[in-house]
Automatic annotation (TrEMBL), chains A, B, C, D:
Binds 1 zinc ion per subunit. Its cofactor is Zn(2+). It catalyses: hydrogencarbonate + H(+) = CO2 + H2O. It comes from Microbaculum marinisediminis. Zn(2+) binds at residues 43, 45, 104, 107. Pfam families: Pro_CA. The keyword Coiled coil does not apply. GO terms for molecular function: carbonate dehydratase activity; zinc ion binding. This is Carbonic anhydrase.
Length: 217, 217, 217, 217
């Protein structure tokens, strides 16, 4: 089966339209190496690409993406930890000054968790164990608000998951040390797919606040 | 510490320039859900964002990114497998018809593997075990060409890793079944950061061939 | 004589207010090295600092500043060429993808040139020969507009000097090659001190146009 | 190729956030002209902007920047001396009372000199001759300390270069006269990129001492 024609055309469009503007920057980044200004831990969802939401250019964001933008708790062992390895690479090798956990609305992984899919054929081989990392986040959401409608619950859990991932990041010794030294800062955000609204986690209030339009800045 | 001002401004640029063009598409994707036309397994590298290379819009690519675009072999257990869970979600829940493993030049993870970083302090807690998934890829590269210069070796191993990830994908029963049923097709590609060149793995020859420019490109 | 107290206090303000936010980025840039996204050739004038005008952070702009933001013509010899060496370092060593010549209003060097200071004691040992690089720019300005008032003449020559510096940049073989290869792009801009207005040289029209406010973008 | 979007947005940030606070000061400086309280001779390095390190506002610092913050010896001739012209302009025209030579860590120009880049293709057309101004500074550093590790040597030479630039300043008659008349004071400083530490040259001891934090800092 040949390579998808639409992707080839998409590359040609990139090569014809965007690459000319970035040829020099890419050559520079190839010679000098990357020094990304931030790491983003996002979801695989096709509607929430970090580079799109933040209008970034090559070299700016080191991005790990998994189902439901989850950061597992620190658990070093012989297993192959994809997300934890990426975090360690970003913090120790690339010394990123900022880490952003980017959640988003309508997250399929979180929806699956909320639907409590316990049937083996649905949990599958890996989705179930992965989603188990979300255990308890529903009650965490209910703790703050008892009477949540379904849509509100989904949104509330999405926010809980961002807070949890940030909390789990601090369980990594090499992250915590740099956070305490002021060399790494942790941030949370939530992207609303239906409207394109970005809301940022306010460390003071612990709430997600919409980004004010430029003129209000 | 406040949310990075440059990322906020990047979002404002997105909201002012690109969002207006995609508002309708996003609203549609929010209501009907995503049905990505392909899954891309790429690297976290800040210089190789799949959405950029393929000029895709929201809803098109379901993207998992880890260090060195690795697909581990099928190994179901109680552990939390980030990449495997994403693959299962893409294939079983989203039924993507195509899966693209996108490698790239100057991969830091592969460079670390080639430098044979065995010292604990460099292997860290997670980078070492993760990179162990690359074990043997150097000799695999040498098998096809004995006299590789360093730069060539890096490139050769990058190609081996793409082939390996594709091979490992077929160790997942739910992937193999659909591949055999013609419902899923696997593809390999390699992005050259210095030049922006995309090379596609030819299943016939097993070699990576540069994408021919469009007639009018 | 002790170090100026106001500068020490300024540093303490930096150390107390801005450094905390930049600590991580600086540590990263120290380990990975700089890869500035642009070179700016500006004037020494105390009222036209490039980092201020473009709100840039550490690592973004490689800046050479001399009297009247002049780029001399390519003239390799045994002499010590400060500006030419900086340009070569930026283009060959740091591979900056963009070079911006930033002129500004009320330029003292250009005013000196226009006042035709021929008396030795005013030309001094170095100002005179340096300003001689501006020779002919007045008639160049008059060529496009015969009846310029003094203020207009100053402004017109400031613009001519930016155009000239851009033209001289292309006399450097290592710049011209990269410009032709699309790896380096040259840009001109003019900062108005009295109003803080930035005007950008439009390569099409050859005229300087004010930057439109965000909402018009 | 259009003007870089990120720089345009950076200017808009300046225009929206900082300009309003400085509009009055800029209008004043435009009418009355600049009277900078000091000249800074710094490096082009993107990580060591004088205005940032000293938290200065428009009108305060007259800044010349070249590779490795070098002041060449006084050598009046017909050549175009960028740095010397800036010094003469600052001292004779603007009568700055203080001149600060600001060195910094990890200086690429000094690293190039220490690597003894003699090959023509690396010396290039201008970098080599410019760096030749550093000749002998390594042995000068070794004279004070025989057993310097590489990192220490880089730091030691950076300090030697600051002392040399200060010494060369006194070879300019118009500088020496004013220094002797107590109308101009020369100062040396060194900025540490990794930590943001500023160290000031103590004229008594000839050593660089860290700036003590403000009591309340």
């Amino acid at each position: 089966m040949p390579f998808p024609a639409d992707l080839i055309n998409g590359y040609r469009r990139y090569a014809g339209e965007r690459l000319p503007e970035e040829r020099g920057r890419l050559a520079q980044l190839a010679k000098l190496g990357q020094a990304p200004r931030a790491m983003v831990i996002g979801c695989c969802d096709s509607r929430a690409a970090p580079e799109t939401v933040f209008s970034t250019r090559p070299g700016e964001l080191f991005v790990v993406r998994n189902v439901a933008n989850i950061v597992p708790p620190y658990a070093p062992d012989d297993a192959h930890h994809s997300t934890s390895a990426a975090i360690e690479f970003a913090v120790r090798e690339l010394m990123v000054p900022d880490i952003v956990v980017l959640g988003h609305s309508l997250c399929g992984g979180i929806a699956a968790y909320l639907k409590g899919r316990q049937l083996e054929e649905i949990r599958g081989d890996f989705i179930g164990p992965w989603i188990d990392l979300l255990s308890g986040s529903q009650s965490e959401a209910e703790a703050t608000d008892k009477d949540l409608a379904d849509a509100d619950m989904q949104r509330a859990v999405e926010e809980v998951v961002v807070r949890r991932s940030l909390k789990n990041l601090t369980t990594f010794p090499f992250v915590r040390e740099k956070v305490e030294a002021g060399e790494v800062t942790l941030h949370g955000a939530h992207f609303g797919i239906a409207t394109g609204e970005l809301r940022i986690l306010d460390p003071e209030t612990g709430r997600f606040e919409a980004v004010a339009p430029a003129e209000d800045a």
